Amino acid sequence: MSLESVRAWLAANAPDLPIIEVEASTATVDEAADALGVEPGRIAKTLAVRAGGETFLLVARGDARLDNQKAKAAFGGRPRMLGADETLALTSHPVGGVCPFGLAMPLPIYCDVSLRNFAIVYPAAGSLNSSVEVSPERLAEITAARWVDACRSPQEDEAGA
To answer: Distance between CA 5 and CA 10 in Å, rounded?
Structure first.
């Protein structure tokens, strides 16, 4: 079970981070924000992506959008989201519960700089109703993620940047 692989991974790598399990679905950014009582930007969505010949996970703020030009510059190729079956096979997590913890196989992990707009973010924890509360810096540290600028935040969209 995916939640169990996350539970075991966190116990070994970040035992101070408890898993938050709720009755409601946290499978989408909006559902997770409602269930956790936070704004959508604080949900740390994890995208399974292929770009520049590499398959990896990108963690970004929930209301950010992948920007093709920024992603091309960051990853050396146009980003393509993986399908649900391939994502499940690579991560052991169902779409809606994908996170950078307890993966089926090692994958490079990137954190988008958009996460740094918040002191605390909430990535999923391997199931459709679980999350973890963590600072963006700690998230990057425990997953050995590299920081990239590959997404557009709502503020950038408003400013026309």
So the answer is: 9
